[in-house]
């Protein structure tokens, strides 16, 4: 077993396992009584198991497995409406999933337990290994073993040079051409021998990899604690302020301080979308003006995959569409609603769905208008449809509802959905639902004397997504460090080479042996390079009987 390369480490050596005497069964003394562990022993055993590399890898895999529900099921912090729909659609299964925290996986107790155990396990693995590696890196290579014939990779040369010259040539080949960056660490622990070792960076890369994993865990935890993300739909000519209350949706970590938001404002001046003749998108661009505290407005551009950095966060262009600007007057002629209403695109040709809620009527019932915006409408007996996303022939197709919109119940509502529980759809004399077809600039009468609707214009809107994660740089650095450490650990060979030079009747016999940790296909080539440098000194002349030496 040429592991540490000394005969005394073999169990077959004198004083080893087979030379210890005894029959192994306790003899006349009876069976061996094992000591009881006790609480301290069990605690020590548990700690050693937790800090073993095997358990660390198991916990890493387990963390990936327990994160799967967070990708499959809707999560309450990101999409509470989707969670509510899932609960309503799965009344038997969903309550149990909610009980086990599967709708908020990354804040659940069991996910946090796996996360913390993995963190402790990695720390427990790394700390002792760092000390061992530092001591190994500072120690000398082991002395040459007595018998080289035990090694699978070995060689021998007889040269016409002194032993000192042969060892000097071998040392030069082992150290390399750059003395400050030696290939091998070379020492002479005995007269006539060299001990060389390389590959200390292998364990260094391994430790860097595990430290990077710890850094990655810490970075992700810090990011989840202090991150925030907000979404806002902004219509051309309008804007929003960077405050929690001004976003349509806002999600933040438990350590987030609302006072840390930089109080800037952003105005959407113009949104430009370019499509080809086949309705394929070519480019999207949002021209905005940013007003920072104490400064004048600064023009900026937001494009796909080119976010705007402002206030310590990045503003991404997430979507776009049309927001028809309408004015609704009630039966008394009073303006009950006026302004743009975003309609959400449903397909590639921007067939968009939206809801116009008119709660402030002076008389009668509240009004709800539900329907579609067709940017380039084509009307046929089969119905109306859009054929291109550009507004070449825009048309609003709306159905009318009357009653109580339910805005005063205290229950939040989706602005893109109409709650019809307390409303009824307006029909004509034949009982068929009334459908309004409205073109830009047109004013139409609402049925049943509910008032009028005027389509004033068709501005665009941009869906903006603001994100701030203070740990992104640390996550990137940790990921790069982990990749580099793993690469160094995988591709740096750990090798030992020994050289012994002895004088035999005026000839110098040089013996070589090499050993690697694990399988190393490059080890024979490494040894051949050192052997060739020694043979370059010149072969010794052959004896009269055709041989060079009995050791050859």
What labels describe this entry?
cytochrome c-type biogenesis, elongated, TATA-Binding Protein, disordered N terminus, five-stranded antiparallel beta sheet, about 550 residues, six-stranded antiparallel beta sheet, ResB-like_domain, 4 domains, alpha+beta, disordered C terminus
Describe this structure in words.
This is Cytochrome c biogenesis protein ResB. This protein has about 550 residues and is α+β, with helices and mostly antiparallel strands. The chain has four domains: about 40-135, no CATH class; about 150-200 and about 495-535, Kinase associated domain 1, KA1 (TATA-Binding Protein, 2-Layer Sandwich), CATH 3.30.310.80; about 225-320 and about 465-480, no CATH class; about 325-455. It is built from ten helices and 26 strands. The strands form six sheets. Strands 14, 15, 16, 19, 20 and 21 form a six-stranded antiparallel sheet that branches. The protein has a five-stranded antiparallel sheet with strand order 1-26-25-3-2, with helices on one face.
Quick recap of the structure?
The chain has 552 residues and is of the alpha+beta class.
């Amino acid at each position: 077993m040429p592991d540490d390369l000394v005969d005394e480490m073999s169990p077959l050596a004198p004083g080893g396992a087979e030379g210890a005497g005894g029959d192994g069964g306790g003899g006349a003394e009876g069976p061996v009584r094992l000591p009881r562990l006790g609480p301290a022993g069990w605690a020590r055993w548990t700690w050693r198991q937790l800090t073993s590399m095997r358990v660390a890898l198991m916990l890493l895999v387990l963390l990936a497995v327990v994160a799967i529900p967070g990708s499959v099921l809707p999560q309450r912090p990101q999409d509470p409406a989707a969670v509510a729909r899932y609960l309503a659609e799965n009344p038997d299964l969903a309550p149990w999933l909610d009980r086990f925290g599967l709708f908020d996986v990354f804040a659940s107790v069991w996910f946090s337990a796996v996360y913390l155990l993995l963190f402790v396990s990695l720390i427990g693995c790394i700390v002792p290994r760092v000390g061992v590696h530092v001591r190994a890196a500072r120690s000398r290579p082991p002395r040459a073993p007595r018998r080289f014939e035990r090694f699978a990779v070995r060689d021998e040369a007889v040269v016409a040079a002194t032993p000192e010259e042969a060892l000097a040539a071998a040392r030069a080949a082992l150290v390399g051409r750059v003395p400050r960056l030696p290939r091998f660490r070379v020492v002479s622990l005995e007269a006539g021998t060299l001990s060389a070792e390389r590959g200390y960076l292998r364990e260094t890369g391994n430790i860097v990899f595990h430290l990077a994993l710890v850094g990655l865990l810490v970075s992700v935890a810090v990011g989840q604690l202090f991150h925030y993300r907000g979404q806002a739909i902004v219509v051309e000519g309008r804007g929003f302020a960077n405050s929690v209350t001004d976003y349509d949706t806002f999600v933040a970590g438990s350590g987030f301080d609302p006072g840390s938001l930089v109080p800037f404002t952003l105005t959407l001046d113009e949104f430009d979308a370019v499509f080809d003749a086949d309705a394929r998108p070519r480019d999207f661009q949002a021209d905005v003006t940013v007003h920072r505290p104490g400064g004048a407005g600064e023009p900026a551009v937001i494009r796909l995959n080119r976010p705007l950095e402002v206030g310590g966060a990045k503003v991404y262009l997430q979507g776009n569409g049309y927001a028809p600007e309408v004015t609704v007057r009630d039966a008394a002629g009073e303006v009950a609603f006026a302004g743009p209403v975003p309609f959400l695109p449903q397909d590639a040709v921007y067939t968009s769905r939206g809801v116009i809620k008119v709660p402030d009527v002076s008389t009668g019932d509240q009004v709800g208008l539900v329907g579609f915006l067709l940017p380039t409408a084509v009307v046929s007996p089969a119905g109306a449809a859009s054929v291109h996303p550009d507004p070449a022939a825009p048309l609003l197709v709306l159905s009318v509802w009357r009653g109580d919109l339910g805005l005063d119940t205290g229950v939040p509502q989706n602005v893109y959905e109409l709650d019809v529980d307390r409303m009824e759809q307006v029909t004509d004399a034949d009982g068929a639902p009334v459908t309004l077809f409205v073109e830009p600039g047109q004013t139409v009468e609402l049925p049943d004397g509910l008032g009028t609707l005027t389509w004033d214009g068709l501005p665009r809107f941009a869906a903006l997504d603001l994100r701030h994660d203070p740990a992104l740089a640390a996550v990137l650095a940790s990921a790069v460090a982990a990749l580099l450490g793993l690469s160094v650990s995988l591709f740096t060979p750990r090798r030992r080479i020994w050289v012994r030079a002895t004088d035999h009747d005026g000839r110098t016999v040089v013996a070589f042996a090499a050993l690697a940790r694990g399988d190393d296909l490059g080890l024979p080539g490494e040894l051949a390079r050192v052997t060739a440098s020694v043979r370059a000194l010149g072969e010794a002349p052959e004896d009269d009987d055709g041989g060079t030496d009995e050791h050859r």
